[in-house]
Structure formats: C-alpha cells, structure tokens
Amino acid sequence: MEIDAVMSKLINHTPTIMGSRHSSKYAVVLPLIQKEDGIHVLFEVRSLSLRRQPGEICFPGGKIESTDADEQAAAIRETTEELGISKKEITEVLPLDFMITPFGMIVYPFVGLITSPENIKLNPMEVKEIFTVPLDYFLTTDPEIYQISFKVEPEEKFPFHLIAGGKNYHWRTRNLDEYFYLYNDKVIWGLTAKILSHFIEILR
User: Fold this and answer.
1) What are the structural domains of the chain?
2) Which of 11, 88, 131, 177 is deepest in the core (most CB within 10 A)?
3) Which run of H or of E encompasses 183?
4) By percentage, how much of the chain surpasses pLDDT 70?
C-alpha cells in the first residue's frame, strides 16, 4: 500500500469511540415537571413483567433504533411511548454528558420538560408507576456511593506464554462507583442515579 493511499484513508476518516459500532446504544430523558412547590424530577418504576430489571426505578428511555434520526429523537420517542404523551409535550430537551458503561453500552441522556404531566397515560407493558421528587431534595442531598470491584479471569486457553510475566502478569483491575439516592421508600441507584448526580453537579 502506498503512503498516499494510507493518508487518503485517514483524511476521510471521522473519529468516533473505538469499538462503538458494535456497542449497544441507548437514550434516556431525565424528565422535569413544574409543580406548585417547585420543579420535580419524574421517575418510572419498571413493569414487573419486563425481562430486564423488573420493578427497578429508571428514567424513560431505551435502545436507539435505526429509524431514529439521532440520539435525541430516540430519547423523545421512548418517552412518548412509555408516558403516553405527545412529542410537543416534551420541551427544552438538552443533552447531558453521554456515558460508556463497563458492559459495552453507550447511554445518551437528555433533560426535558414535561409541559402537561396531567396528560400522562402510562404504558403498563413497560411502566408500573411513576413518582416525582423535588429537585431541591437532590440539590441538598448527596448520594451514597459504594464500590464494586471487577476481578480479571482470563479464559482457560488464554496464551499466557505470549505476554510478559505470563501467569504472573499484573492485571490492572478497576472499581465501579455505584450511586444510591434514598427518598422515602424509593431507592434510586445504578445508571439512573449516576445520570442524576451528573445533572445535579451541572446545576451546582
């Protein structure tokens, strides 16, 4: 291969996250609603009939489909499907930092204002119930943070003879911070709590 051909390939290459083509991509909306006592954050409790994470607390959202125009469109579509509202009832949709999880997922979170919460009609196949928490609670309450350690376990046929140190190779391990917010009888944790914490950091 000639150097000109190599350079032309690089010039026409648009950088992205390495390996992201094979990653599952999801988009969510952190919904805000205006109540008489101020701004509230809306949460869903996932339907008990769902295969993944039944009964857990989350934000509206889901997998980005090939038919979605972009990440924001996917987040809005999922929110309309789960809360039974129209696109025009979700305004001020603005992005937060996207997240790459240790499990190969890329999550694109957005903040959006639900202008007509009285029109919400839950999709019972996906949502068991909803509840709201005053935004001020999160502004004045730090999350509890606990660590999960990941253990490295190479497969049985791993070629230790090809790496320096062999079976005594010093693997770099990592810890994952898990965030928890406790509000009355509700436990908000995992990706939902991490996105929420990031949002609060921006506000502060």
Assistant:
1) 23-203 (3.90.79.10)
2) 131
3) strand 174-183
4) 100
